[in-house]
Amino acid sequence: MDRRPGETPAPRRGRLPLERYIEGVRSGDRVILARAITLIESDREDDVEVAARLLDALLPDTGKARRVGITGVPGAGKSTFTDALGMHLIQDRGEKVAVLSVDPASPVSGGSILGDKTRMERLCLEDNAFIRPSSSRGQLGGVAPRTRETMLLCEAAGYSNILIETVGVGQSETAVRSMSDFFLLMLIPGAGDELQGTKRGIIEMVDAIAINKADGENKPRAERARVEYASALHLFPAPASGWAPRVVTCSAVTGEGVREIWSMILEHREHFEASGQLAELRSRQALRWMRELVILGLEGELRRDRAVALKLPELEENVRLGRATPFAASREVLSLFRKEK
Ligand code: GDP
Q1: Pocket of ligand 1, candidates 70, 78, 79, 80: which has the most ligand atoms within 8 Å of its Cβ, to mutate?
Q2: Are 66 and 265 a contacting pair, CB within 8 Å?
Q3: Could you point out which of 15, 79, 307, 310 has its C-alpha 20 to 30 Å from the C-alpha of 273?
């Protein structure tokens, strides 16, 4: 086999008995973990049934990991940073780390933004790292159709740290924020706010900003950027959580500042745990996810509905030609759908 140790093995065809998935995941078997993820990513009705039972069975083994979301424009250094942080966790702290990504297809090319370039070169050689690139979206709707479930499986498999990476595009940041405890925005000095997508909405979601590439001649610029962002953050109202977002510098290449960022994440964790806010945050997130799954499920049912499928082309044509309003046509679609029930 030409796969490297950290890479997810290609799933084999066929489904295992439920018990095999449960035992395999619990014992940290990476091959079974990978296959379990493939199972929960499946859209086939019988797979969905088994996947639900698997997740139910593993529920007691989940929830203990530190869940860290990392966002930033392509080129900010997210994979290099994840590699460095993951190595710190494995080598210095003797822990395990799973790296997931939420990769929204590019709105322009339709292709993946995070891409297939060699990422996380050191981490993918580690037995204590599990790297799962984002799955192609297939039939599933939504931005991160099964990333949350993938995270739960990794937790059940003993990965005490989950790093979820995304690019700052569309809904992907909100999706990652809504499954992480700590949300880190990675910026590079001198790239301009607009380019880096530092819209107010994103700033309000973050727990920290890391100005990356603070090395060599970039160092003074990174420090200036840090001061600027720190004073800009002061203008925001103090968060009710009692955690004021921080701005730090780091270099993913030299490793400077990476350890400190992890200490900050641990400090945040302590603060949120001691105040009961972590449990609160997680239950809010779970509720939100349930609601999203209901919407996604409805969308899927709507798409599979025969009466709707038969009538839809005509209705769409009418709207396209201005013969019907979108409002009226949408009402007709919904009434056809309801009739089927
Ligand atoms: P991503 O698209 O955000 O995942 O960014 P990458 O991790 O792929 O990094 C983009 C480029 O920036 C690569 O050529 C990296 O080698 C480089 N890079 C990443 N981090 C640093 C850093 O801390 N310092 C310097 N000088 N270059 C970096």
Answers
A1: 80
A2: yes
A3: 79
Residue 2 has pLDDT above 50, yes or no: no
- Within 10 angstroms of residue 146's Cβ, the number of other Cβ atoms is 23
Question: Are the CB atoms for 71 and 176 separated by under 8 Å?
Answer: yes
Beta bridge partners of 292: none
**Sheet (strand 208-211) strand order:** 129-132, 97-102, 161-166, 66-71, 182-187, 208-211, 246-249
Q: Which residue has the tokens 């995941």?
A: 25
Burial of 216 (0-12, 13-18, 19+ CB in 10 A): exposed
> Given CA atoms 274, 277, 281, 282 in this order, what sign does their dihedral have?
positive
Three-state SS at 105: strand
How far apart are alpha carbons 333 and 318 in whole angstroms? Answer: 13
Residue nearest atom 22 of ligand 1, based on CA coordinates: 213
DSSP state of 294: H
Instruction: Examine the pLDDT at 227 and tell me if it is beyond 70.
Output: yes
Residue 256 one-letter amino acid: E
In 3D, which of 81, 91, 155 has the Cα closest to residue 126? 91
- Centre a 10 Å sphere on the Cβ of residue 83 and count the other Cβ atoms it contains: 25
Instruction: Let me know how many helices (H) and strands (E) the chain has, helices first.
Output: 12, 7
* pLDDT tens digits for range 194-220: 656 666 677 888 999 999 999 999 999
| The pTM of the whole model exceeds 0.85 | yes
Tell the burial category of 157 from Cβ atoms under 10 Å away from its Cβ (0-12, 13-18, 19+): buried
Give the number of the atom of ligand 1 that is nearest the alpha carbon of residue 212: 23
Residue 243, judged by CB atoms within 10 A of its CB (0-12, 13-18, 19+), counts as middle
Instruction: Name the token pair of 302.
Output: 């709507």
Cα 92 to ligand 1 centre (Å): 22
Domains in the chain, CATH or no CATH each: 1-61 (1.20.5.170), 62-275 (3.40.50.300), 286-340 (1.10.287)
Ligand 1 first shell, C-beta below 6 A: 72, 74-80, 212-213, 215, 251-253
